[in-house]
User: What shape does this take?
Amino acid sequence: MRPVIREDFKEILRLVRPGSRVLDVGCGEGELLEILAREKQVDGRGVEISPEGVAAGLSRGLAVVQGDADRDLDHFATKAFDYAVLSQTLQAVRHPRHVLGELLRIADNAIVSFPNFGHWRVRWSLVSRGRMPETRALPEPWWSTPNIHLCTLADFLSLCEDLDLRIDACAALAEGRPARSIDPTKSIENWRAEAAIFLLSRRGDAEPTEPTAPRDDLFGG
Amino acid sequence: MTAATATTKEAFCGDGGTWRFPTDKPLRLDSGGELAPLEIAYRTYGTLNADKSNAVLVCHALTGDQHCAGEHPVSGKPGWWTRLIGPGLPLDPTRHFIICSNVIGGCMGSTGPASINPATGQAYGLSFPVITIADMVRAQAMLVEALGVQTLFAVVGGSMGGMQVLQWAADYPDKLFSAVIIASAARHSAQNIAFHEVGRQAVMADPDWRGGAYALHGVRPEKGLAVARMAAHITYLSEPALQRKFGRELQRDGLSWGFDADFQVESYLRHQGASFVDRFDANSYLYITRAMDYFDLAQTHGGILAEAFRKARDVRFCVLSFTTDWLYPTAENRHIVRALNAVGARASFVEIESDKGHDAFLLDEPVMNAALSGFMAAADQARGLA
Assistant: This one.
C-alpha cells in the first residue's frame, strides 16, 4: 500500500511537468522528491539544513546538498531547474525577499507555500486574547517557533508585485482537506486560508514558460 | 564453512601485486618529461563482472597504501578502510571489483624516490621528478586500463584521496559513473602548505637525511621524519578529541622537571612518530606533501573551479565533511559543492557532526556510514549492480 501523500505534495505533483528538473529547498528527508521521481520521473535535487535529513535523502537515492536557503542558493546556476519548491519554509528564512528572488533566478517557476497570518483564527487570537496565535498551521508558542517572517496572503501578493513576479496559480491549503483553488486577491481568502501554495514565474520573460495543463487544472481544478 | 562463505572470504582477502609498465609506456609528468620504467603496486578485492561495470577505485591519503581492506599481508593489521570496505559495507567486494593502488612517489611498491633509477643503478633520491596529484591519477588511469576496466563505477577517497577523485572528475569525466570525496579540498590552503613545510624542514634538518641520498649512506633521517609525523598528526585531530583522550594527564606520578614525556599526549605523539618511520620513507614524504601543496584544481582551469567539472555533469557526486576538521574544513568542501552545483552536476553534500577532527573519515562515524551506504546503494541501483 502506498503511503498517504500530504495534500500540498499532491498539489505539487499535479503541477510539475513529467521529466522536469526540480530543486526542493528545505527538502527534509526527501519525501516530496522521492514521490516526484516515482510519479513524474523528475530529475530532482534537494537542499536541506539538517545532516540527518540529508543522510535520509541520500539513503533514498536522492541528490541532496546540506545548505541554508538564506546563504546557499547563490551557487546554483541560473535557470538550472524548471521548478524550485519552497514548502512551508519561506516564513523561517532570514531574507524571504532574497530567497524568493533566488528561486526564480534558479528556476523558471517557483512553488511556494506558507501559513497565512491573515487567517481568521490568527486574527481572533490577537484581537480577542491579545496573545500570539497557536493554530494548526502555526503550532509552536512564540518563544520556540522557527518562523521569523510571517506574512499574510495580502503581504505576499505585494511582495510578488514588488519583485515583478506573476502568480500563475494559487490554492488554499488546510490539513486533511484537498487543496482549494483560490483567487488570492480576494480579501475573503485572506481570512479563510490557513495556508496557501503559489505557482510563480517571472514577469517580462522573453519566453514565458507554457504551462502544459490548462490553468484551472494546475491547482485542484 | 559453506562454499559461498569460502568464496566471499577468498574474494575479500584481496589480490594484486605490482604492475610493471614496459619502458615504451612511460608516465607523462606535469613537470615535463616522462617517468619510465613505471611500477604500480595495487590490490584488488572482489571480481570484475561480465560487463565490467562494477569497478571501484579507492584512493588513499598521504601516508596510506594499497592495503585498504582485509588484512595487511606483512603487518597482519587490518587495512586502513576496513570500516567501509567489506561484505555488507558500502564498498562490497561481493558486489564491487575494488582496486586500490599505491600512488606514484609512494614507498609501498610503486615507483618513488626510493626506487632504483635504471640510469644510475642507485635510488632516485632527489633526482626523482616532482610529481603532482594529476600525475598520480594518470598513473592510476594506466593501471585501471591495464586491468581491463574502461569505466569506473566509482572513485572514492578521503583527504589526499579526495583530491585524486576530484582530479579524476576533471581529467576523465567520461570514465566515471560516481565519485565520493571525503574531508578534502580542491586546493591546498596556505595553512596546509605551512604545516607541510614544517614537516619537510624537519626531515631535511636531520643530519641523516644527507641531501636525500641517505640510502647511499646506509642511514635514515628517522628523527626528522618522526617530528614531521608528530606535527602532522596534531592537524589530523581536534582539540576536543585530544582533550578527551589525554587532557593534561601525566605518564606517572609527578613531573620529571625535565624534558621526558611527562604528559600522556607527548608520549602518544612520540609513539606515532616512532612507528611511522618504520613504515614510511622520508623522501616519499617530501614528494607526496609537495604534490598536495601544488594541488589547485581551479588554477589549472582558468581560475574557475566549476570549469574543472564542466564535463562531469553526469557524474553522481557525494561530498562529505566533518565539523571539527580544521585541516580540510567544511568551507573547503563546500567550495567543491558550489562548483559542482554551478555546472548543474548531480551533487550531494553532508557536513557530519563529529569531534574527531580530520581523522574522522577513518573512524567509526555512523552518519558517514549511513550517507555513504545510501549514496552507494542508489548508485548500485542506477548502475544495475544491486
Remarks:
- Chain A touches chain B through 22 residues (CB under 8 Å).
